[in-house]
Amino acid sequence: MGGSMVLARRFEEHRPRLRAVAYRLLGSLGEAAEAVEEARLRLERPGAGADADPGPEAGAVRNADRALTAAVARVCLDRLRSRGAARREEDPYGEDGRLRLPDPVVGRVPGPGHGPGHGPGGPGPGPDSEQRALLSDGCDLPFMTALDTLGPAERVALVLCDLCAVPSDEVAEVLGRTEASARQLADRARRRVRAAAPAPDGDPEHRREVVAAFLAAAGEGDLDALLAVLDPDVVARSDGGTLRPSLLRRGATTVAAQAVIFARLAEAAHLVLVNGAPGVMAVVEGRVISVMSFTVRGGRVTALDVLTDPDRLTRLGLTALLD
Question: pTM score, two decimals?
């Protein structure tokens, strides 16, 4: 079987995984889908699959899988460079002062319902293959936000090396650099991301309990209970898009007061999974008005990342989770 035929056959089989790679590289679900399709079209050009080993079959499959990942990475690298959105500041705020959160991947909390107003009502259907790929290791929202502080080459090097296990010589080929340079880029990016997004507590059930306690305290207007679950130095960041101001709040007292005000505005708040981690989705008149992602370390909430951009929330189609 020729190289181009191997790539064509494997592409559709691997589309969910390739979209997950593109999502990590771009931080946008819509752009990720576009990048994967652009990569497919590029591979259909005459001679594009010539470097895919035509046999034996096992070798062809391995080479084809790497070729597909590299093709998507090249498209994403071009997009990162052209859009100028891979910011080099040490925080997720751009030159215009607006926070830009990645698109969240929101899903139902597994297991029984969490009571009135505290969950979408039971386990619901499990995630499909595409969502499972999107929610695999390395895509919690703080990590994705930290990726946005990297330059294009750093981001591609880190994602390919650490999340896709691509050999460093192949990463170098994608980047058009030497292998040593590609390793240095990945090492530098790894240090920066670890500093910007330290690992959360490991027990997901405990983190869910902390978020549930935050949600209950905010709904009841109980400031003391909120202060008990918030780290004294907690940071709350919101991305309102172009229609709403982005906000940055620091300190438990300030964040607790803001949480109570926001809880009063929402008619219902649901525990959900945001990029695989416990989060909250707030609803008014059947419309999702915010998605909150929580970072829990040491048994307390150390950071909240909140998407309130109405355009992006609408595009994400989150009301389906309320059924």
Answer: 0.82
